[in-house]
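User: I'm new to structure prediction. If I give you an amino acid sequence, what do you actually give back? Let's try with this one:
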Amino acid sequence: MNFFKNIFSKGKKTKASSKTNLEEESDFMPKLESPTDNRFVKNFIQNGGKFLYSDNEKEVNENIALILNENSWDKSNLICIDKTISKRFRLEYSFSKDINDNSICLVSTCEYLIADDGSILISSNQVAEKKLAELPTDIIILAKTDQLINNISEGLTGIKNSGKLIPSNITNLKHFKDCNDKDFLSYGSSSKNLYLILLENQ
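Assistant: Good question. You get back a string of structure tokens that encode the predicted 3D arrangement of the chain. For your 202 residues, that looks like this:
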């Protein structure tokens, strides 16, 4: 995903995208859809999500430390239901596996990142059978750039064709602002304070 490297990598300049003469000259040409990664980041931030890009596993750990510091959280406040997460992202953290009174923030992976609406598709693989309302208000999602897709339909197809047992409790996280900021279409949804740490696939 050169988009993220161009935008977020230190010491690298963003390359300006060029248009063909035909695109510049004609007002009747259909508008080209922006790249999946660009669309996702724009919609995710508009939803109220907090986006952090990481070029490698070291930066993932640094970003988690920054989030802990920003919120005055302790490592003991972090929980993780997904048992593979530390190994997958080479985390320097160990997490509680059970939600308890000390739990403040859930650290989780996801199934896919949906560009069309900036939402995050999750399932029982990440949150077991817990409903969104049962999860902590604060969530850190760890994902990789190869999980970016256009829409939910692609995500459901990807889950179905993965060759693995189809998970239950498939839902998407979309509303990250306070309840007062949500429109009537999101009434009844469980709004979360959500951080996304996106790791560039190596």
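You can read the tokens as a compact description of the fold. Here is one thing that stands out. The radius of gyration is 18 Å.
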